[in-house]
Design brief:
about 290 residues, alpha+beta, Ribosomal Protein S5, domain 2, Alpha-Beta Plaits, six-stranded mixed sheet, four-stranded antiparallel sheet, binds cytidine-5'-monophosphate
Length: about 290
């Protein structure tokens, strides 16, 4: 067994990847943020946060994408720690370890998931609570996706992402795929042909979720494909490997494919990795309502 860098931590908090199964951009606010209508779920695959009481604050990293993040200096984990401590009027020092398994700047909410897991984990470690409104405001201040990542369960996100309605969605067998080319979220939003698009047609959604998802769209996919032509290529590969539905998540470049079973997803990911050894693939399952962190 390889050594688990988190084994000596008091508390391990999962930071599931966020997947926009569908995303409509329905308007733009005066401050430049866009209004969304998005069907969102989370996956068993994700980053992990380890927490340990310490003499002074420490932040350490491991995992396949630790290198990219270390180079960035500032990060959402330490920002979440500092803002929570501030909101609480002080809290003890802590060693936070981030195991970075998710590609960075890839449309599956990595940084937001890490920030949300830090908030959830520190509230448990410090045995404190914050009123829901205060916690949600703190989360939103860290990023538009952080409130939904706090919930980490199937949901519909509206507003700029903070207006959340929980949703019953079954676990789905999925392959996440990324060409390991970072895509700038603000640039993709700016390149939209129009910020005013119709909301998702979810009213008639059937119990057949893959069919429903196949009938929906991600408005950010056309502009993201112009920045990152590999999105078309990777989507084609997922479909060729047997995915029933293929879409892009968030502002890209991560795409997902839905498969009929976990076995099929795992076989597809293994075959895809063999064919494209420089790309990222992960077979996973989406979380059900009861797996939620809230
Ligand atoms: O809130 P966050 O820092 O994650 O957003 C990154 C950028 O993505 C914003 O600065 C904005 O340009 C764009 N964005 C947007 N509308 C949203 C969410 C993000 O325009 N609802």
């Amino acid at each position: 067994m390889p050594h688990d860098p988190l084994s000596r931590f008091t508390l391990i908090e999962p930071a599931p990847a966020k997947v926009n199964l569908a995303l409509a951009v329905t308007g733009r606010r005066a401050d430049g943020y866009h209004l969304l209508d998005s069907l969102v779920t989370f996956t068993a695959f994700g980053d992990r946060i380890g927490l340990l009481p310490a003499e002074e604050d420490r932040f350490t990293l491991s995992g396949p994408f630790a290198g990219t993040l270390a180079a960035e200096g500032d990060n959402l984990v330490t920002r979440a720690r500092d803002r929570l401590r501030n909101a609480l009027g002080g809290a003890p020092a802590v060693h936070i370890h981030l195991e970075k398994n998710l590609p960075v700047a890839s449309g599956i909410g990595g940084g937001s998931a890490d920030a949300a897991a830090t908030l959830r984990g520190l509230l448990k470690l410090w045995k404190v609570g914050l009123p829901h409104d205060a916690l949600d405001a703190l989360a939103l201040g860290l990023g538009a996706d952080v409130p939904m990542c706090l919930a980490s369960r199937p949901l519909i996100a509206r507003g700029i992402g903070e207006a959340i309605t929980p949703l019953a969605l079954p676990p789905l067998a999925m392959v996440l795929a990324n060409p390991l080319v970072g895509v700038s979220t603000p640039a993709v939003f700016k390149a939209l042909a129009s910020p005013d698009n119709p909301p998702l047609a979810l009213e008639g959604a059937s119990a057949d979720w893959p069919a429903t998802i196949a009938s929906l769209r991600n408005d950010l996919e056309p502009p993201a494909r112009r920045f990152c032509p590999q999105i078309a290529e990777i989507s084609g590969s997922l479909a060729a490997a047997g995915a029933g539905v293929v879409r892009m998540s968030g502002s890209g470049a991560t795409c997902f494919g839905l498969y009929p079973s976990q076995e099929a997803a795992e076989a597809a990911a293994a075959a895809l990795l063999q064919r494209h050894p420089r790309w990222f693939f992960a077979a996973t399952t989406t979380l059900g309502a009861s797996d939620g962190a809230h």
